[in-house]
Automatic annotation (TrEMBL):
This is Superfamily II DNA and RNA helicase. InterPro entries: DEAD/DEAH_box_helicase_dom, DEAD/DEAH_RhlB, DEAD_box_RNA_helicase, Helicase_ATP-bd, Helicase_C-like, P-loop_NTPase. Belongs to the DEAD box helicase family. Residues 361-393 are annotated as: Disordered. Residues 374-393 have a biased composition (Basic residues). PROSITE patterns: HELICASE_ATP_BIND_1, HELICASE_CTER. GO terms for cellular component: cytosol. Residues 204-363 form the Helicase C-terminal domain. It comes from Bombilactobacillus mellis. Signal peptide: none annotated. PANTHER family: ATP-DEPENDENT RNA HELICASE DBPA (PTHR47959:SF1), ATP-DEPENDENT RNA HELICASE RHLE-RELATED (PTHR47959). The keyword Hydrolase applies. The keyword Transmembrane helix does not apply. Pfam families: DEAD (PF00270), Helicase_C (PF00271).
Amino acid sequence: MQIPIVYQDYFQAHHFLHLTPIQEQVYPLLLKHQNVLALAPTGSGKTLAFGMPLLQQVQPGGGIQKLILEPSQELAIQTRDVLRTLNPDIQIYGLIGGANLKRQIESLKQKPEVVVATLGRLQDLIARKKIKLQHIDTLLVDEADELLTDQLDNIRSLINRLNSSLQLAFFSATKIPLFKDLHTWFASDFVTVDLTNDSFFRSGLQHYFLKVDNQHKPDILQRLAHRKNKKNLVFCQSSKQLHRLAATLRYRKVYFTVLDTSDPKKRRADALADFRNQKTSLLLTTDVAARGMDITDLTTVINWENPNTLTEYIHRSGRAGRMGRHGEIITLGNQHDRRQLQALLQEAGIKLEKSTLLKAPIAKTKTDNSVSKTAKKRAGKKKRSSKNHRKPN
């Protein structure tokens, strides 16, 4: 399938040469108003996969026609922004918790055609009778594994308020048992597109394991952070571990930023902005905090410890090498950790490559001093004000 003419300028501007497999397979199904369950790895282009056909169906001035549910505020805004770029002529609004409710109510008077929402804020607006649902012809649930696990009853209740001819679409990077019973839960038949094992998305990824004891992990991480032209996303197993690592790096005067669920919304947004704009090459996070996060040019995912499951590993891996680009996955640990990881990856046919990572050109330490004054000030404020910035035990 060729790139649709209406989106060719967008693809050219973003240096996308072709549709990804999920985009190619889902596009005609959604355009034909079929119910779809779409499964594809993180980084496979799912937002564009549903965005292109849904926006192409929108009738200008026809009220809210497409409703997209996201599990988090950040992901809702991220999706809204991608869709706005895809078609600037369509009114696309984001309705999320934590934002000014009165302002959102006023914005709905402008009659948007597409709404991207978090479920809690949407339910609030419905209860207040401030949002019109009668013209909605498509409900799309993104990150459906999470939303259906936590909010199945609420989503079914929402669907009962919408048109009987409603098109349903569920998108996910992970399979859950409930997906086998969608026809039962929603009284509809679904076309399933399952690309979770598609080799296209792994072709640009290299997987490494660096043998190191816990004491010297910060040394290795610091060296990895100083490599040229690399953006490093570091996954910790918990917020507690994340903040201990942050304290260690701060003591070493390594510049980094943190994305954590406990941080205020603005701080999370600033952290992502600094990382995207290359004010720092190191972003520390957890699986929960990074859910659905999109950084298109991410080069490196670093596992501070082994992930607990293969699904966790694949989710993390998909953040690097998005849309088939080159990326590297680096896991740190001892020989026992290596054996555990190899056993975990065997099921997916993923092999660890011989590492030459630290033989690559390393930028001089003065790289840290080139970080913007804004990033330095923000790091200083965190050190003084945040309870998370204590020294490691």
